[in-house]
Amino acid sequence: MIIEPRTRVIVTGGASGIGLAVTKACLERGAQVAVNALPGDAKASEVIAGLKATYNETVVSAFADVSDRGAVEDMITSSARQLGGKVDLLVNNAGTSNTRDPIPMSDLDKMTPEFWGAIFSTNLLGPFWCSRAAAPYFSDGGAIINIASIAGLGKSASSMAYAASKAALINMTINLAKALAPHVRVNAVAPGLTRTPWTADWPEARVSKSLSSTLLGRWVEAEDVAHAVIMLAENPSITAQTLVVDAGRGYHE
Length: 253
Hints:
Strand order of the largest sheet: 3-2-1-4-5-6-9
Protein name: SDR family oxidoreductase
Pfam family, one: adh_short
Number of helices: 8
Structural class: alpha/beta
Number of strands: 9
GO molecular function: oxidoreductase activity
Number of domains: 1
Shape: globular
Family: Belongs to the short-chain dehydrogenases/reductases (SDR) family.
Keywords: Oxidoreductase
Largest sheet: 7 strands, parallel
């Protein structure tokens, strides 16, 4: 697959952060993109309207909460129809975190059933519902890219639940690759500290500490992750893999 004007793409959480960078990277290559966001999200609606003004008919609105199985099925069906009945690339980017209020791993009391449920229903079940709903619409040679995190590989995380959800997503990536082979490839990208709205209000001391733990001493930009997504989407020989994009953090800690 080459991302080009005939390519049909769905990006969940596609109006902000990494998802928006992926959306723009695909649109700039001429692809048609269904941009998913939460219903009632005024900021996302504004962003999608701006994308439509710039890229015209190549942008499709796709509002749904990815943790809601029924809403996902309706969203994927509607998006596929508006994209011409087929899907070439699904990017499972939508996720949730407590990154602004980290929970120490030792604080087990804050790991309530409600907290676990909220994290897993979006970060793990969301990508599964989207992938399952999209499976019948994939063209031969299609691809799914899951946005994971280095937290899922044992690095520091905002909470135990977040890290576990991303570890499970990495494992599910492998199993989806087995389930959908040979017609659809499934891979993941695991970013490190990335400059997004999630990290925009971090205290300077926290940012400095995080950046000092990388070999390159720099943020990962959302566009860096988008480039990795495009590479995995276009390489026909890569499946069941997780590509780390973390400015060398994995080799510093």
